Amino acid sequence: MTPGLIISAPASGSGKTTLTLGVLAALRARGLDVQPFKCGPDYIDPAFHAAAAGRASFNLDAWAMGRGQLEALAAVEADLIVAEGAMGLFDGVAKPGETGTGASGDIAALMGWPVVLVLDVSGQAQSAAAVAKGFATLRPAVQVAGVVLNKVASPRHEALVRAGMEEAGIEVLGVIPRAAGIALPERHLGLVQAEETDALDKLLAEAGRIVAEHCDLDRMISVAAGRGRGSRWRGMPRFPLSIRI
Predict the structure, then answer these.
(1) How far apart are CA 83 and CA 104, in angstroms?
(2) Helices 127-138 and 155-168, interaxial angle, to 10°?
(3) Are 218 and 140 in contact (CB under 8 A)?
(4) Cβ neighbours of residue 187 under 8 Å, at least 6 residues apart?
(5) Are 47 and 194 in contact (CB under 8 A)?
(6) pLDDT in tens, 132-190
(7) Are 142 and 108 in contact (CB under 8 A)?
(8) Separation CA 17–CA 45 (nearest Å)
């Protein structure tokens, strides 16, 4: 089975897409064959994924798709699967009584893929650990492997956030400085589409360079392959699925 991970966040606007594109570009630059996916019915992000990974990206929706269809889509020949979440990790739209909410967390639990949680830590320090720990413990079937800290202002800011994460038992998988400034152009009702983005190849190359410099890609590959989870999960057994689709 192809190893995989989900890049998610507490909310939209945290940096999921830019980190996902950077990870895809950086791993592709290493010569790895990476299969991208997008959680939810999104048609814009997959086009960016395809440009970064060099292969088509597909949607995975735990509300609209049955388990068999999801597993069939994930049965790909690749070195690694990288799936980008939608909105916050546990945000879904299903009504009471429906199986599966459509949340990215449903996909994580169903497929057994660990989550890399992107945190925008601008305006906070140790308090970010409370957010991370809440996400790591809310739903036992969802394995949060660690966090990538985004928009870190300074070395002192990084040290304070790291101290909180260490106390909470959350592994830090990367630190993106605010000065790095990787971002996609935006407009009303969403991102500019891939084919409309000027100098897309240059943007993706820069995102890949920044992620390779500031994130532990080897560790991400390891947790995706099941060779150890974030510090909180080391030595713990794999949790059973908690949803039925």
Answers:
(1) 9
(2) 40
(3) no
(4) none
(5) yes
(6) 999 999 999 999 999 999 999 999 999 999 999 999 999 999 999 998 766 655 544 45
(7) yes
(8) 7
The C-alpha atoms of residue 36 and residue 59 are separated, in whole angstroms, by 9
Task: Tell me the domains of the chain and their CATH numbers.
Answer: 4-232 (3.40.50.300)
What does pTM read for this prediction? 0.86
Residue 181 buriedness (CB in 10 A; 0-12 / 13-18 / 19+): exposed
- Alpha-carbon Rg of the chain, whole angstroms? 17
d(Cα 214, Cα 109) in Å, to the nearest integer? 28
Q: Which two tokens stand for residue 5?
A: 């991970």
Other residues' Cβ atoms within 10 Å of the Cβ of residue 6: 30
Residue type, 114: P
**Contacts by 92-96 with C-beta closer than 8 Å and gap 24+?**
92/62, 92/63, 93/63, 94/63
Cβ atoms of 54 and 28 closer than 8 Å: yes
Q: How far apart are CA 173 and CA 109, in angstroms?
A: 21
Residue 35, C-beta contacts closer than 8 angstroms, at least 6 positions apart = 2, 53, 55, 57, 76, 78, 80, 81, 82
Residue 200 is given by DSSP the state: H
